[in-house]
Amino acid sequence: MPDPLDAAAARRRKARYLLLSLLILVADQWTKWLIEIHVPLHVAEPIVPGFLNLTHVRNTGVAFGMFPAGSHLPSLLGLVGMSLLAMGVVAYYFLRTPAEDRGLLVALALVLGGAVGNLIDRLFAGAVTDFVDAYVGLHHWPAFNVADSAITIGLCLLAIDALRPHRAATT
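RESULT FIELD:
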């Protein structure tokens, strides 16, 4: 029979990872706010000439500007619905992940924090603020933000976790 005290301790250990999600959310919203008040829309400010600009763009699509939705309400609602579904899947796996599986919990916390950050933008502004413009010569990577970075890093960590050997569960 499982010890309820052990289960409570495991829940507390897992809750710490939600602080990482909160940190990502705060950093994402703060940096977007700074860009929105200091950089005019569609203006690029060079940081490292030939490689990196701060810019201010509004993304109505999904990650990295793919599948732009424009200002159509059904498209926006579809993106919000997909975001909520993805967050539900991440939350489900977070709850089912053992507290000892730190790498997987970090990955899920990064994805969750980033997803919430971009969802807030979609719900309250109808688009996501992106501001990091990385490029070489004339070849630009689509602009992105802290939330996009957290989601990308989290998904990479999830892929690594999926490829590593796992111990069989003991019962």
